[in-house]
Amino acid sequence: MPTALNESRVKIPLKNVLVVDNDAIIRKYLSNFFTKAGLKVETANDGVTALDLLETYTPDLMLIDLVMPNIDGQTLCRVIRRRPKFKNTPIVILSAIAAEEATDMVKLGANICIAKVGFADMGVMIKRILDNPHLLLDQKFKNKVLGVDDLAPRNITSELLTINQRYQVVLDGISNAIISINQNNRIIYANPAALRYFSITMEMMLGKPLPHIFQGGMGERVLSLIEELGKPGADSRKSIKISVNNRILDLCIATTDGSKDFQVIIMEDITERENTRKALVQANNKFQAQARIDGLTNISNRRHFDELLHQEWGRMRREKGQLSLMLCDVDYFKDFNDTYGHLEGDQCLRDIAETIKSSLHRPSDNVARYGGDEFVILLPGTPLKGALQLAEQIRKRVNQLQCMHAASPIANHVTITIGAGSGSPNDALPEDKFIWLADKSLYAAKAQGRNCSIGEEWQQP
Hints:
CATH class of the largest domain: Alpha Beta
Number of strands: 16
Low-confidence stretches: 1-10
CATH topology of the largest domain: Alpha-Beta Plaits
Helix content: 40-55%
Oligomer: single chain
CATH architecture of the largest domain: 2-Layer Sandwich
CATH superfamily of the largest domain: Reverse transcriptase/Diguanylate cyclase domain
Strand order of the largest sheet: 2-1-3-4-5-6
Structural class: alpha/beta
């Protein structure tokens, strides 16, 4: 028998009704019931459809199924109740398991619960509410479930509820964000971690199109991933990295045994891991750069020069271009160190290195410290004439430094001597020949009196 109700009078007009239930037979029964009672009825088979209806439809009474496949009735009820428009709209929960689950109507935000029993008994309870709508607002009945006495024992239902509660505890407690969407890419579930990641409330997220919660074109990337996974023969798991509120997330789509009714999106916060990886990459790049730089002069070292020579020799050979190389030697540098000391000698080498470096204007040109007081200059795509012109510019600029060198027999300041070699790389002109050719020219320049530049072009034997 239906539970008796206290019938204190508070007037509540009832014209429009919304019925939300995934069971088509129950929707049909309730729709006919309310229509015969002279009320306008709208029905929805899931939470997403209900939220869409509530954008344009304003019911005076809502009946919501507690257990539904996408947005469950408990979540839907809370989302609706948080909307100011429906803050006081009466909500009746329909549930066959309410007695076993001990549903808290106050916490749920519903006014009363009607147990899903036989249609005849349900009809009696619903008619009592229609005849006395003021009962929905009676504070004494907010925690009441009507029709409990008519429920048959359901041990299996109790077991399923226990299992569901355990899974819910896990989903609420894990750090990974989990979002579920339906076949129309509307959000039907989000765990607490997902709400934290996106800094959004449940009512703002549920029912929204998936791209709505992402910034820029990130949502379209996720949809593309979902579409790609849906193709025949696609990998079972693919992931992408996305950025959300200064977090870096690894996002993947969990397969659902071929079901297209919903998709599960799992996001792991990998911000710390990515920052560590980037820091390691940056540190490695810095180390690699430092390994190629001469610590004293801050130009390329011998190791880097060897790499560049090999690289440019191969490129000029492929392009049939001409490669020039110059060796520069500081005149009587040992005497300079003996006279002024090694600190002054180091500064002298730094000044010359900077002078040579600032004289090179093409990205492919490079100067390196070849060893001791020797510098080497690599000039891809440069004939001997151009190399010697540059050599003279560099020599004169070093003279203009006017770095005192009282022990030099050729000038009262530091000077350099340059030897250049040039040719087109081929089997007859290997890489080491360039060094030999430039070194040969350097000795010739020294024999000529130093503080000059001499070059030689390779002649095919």
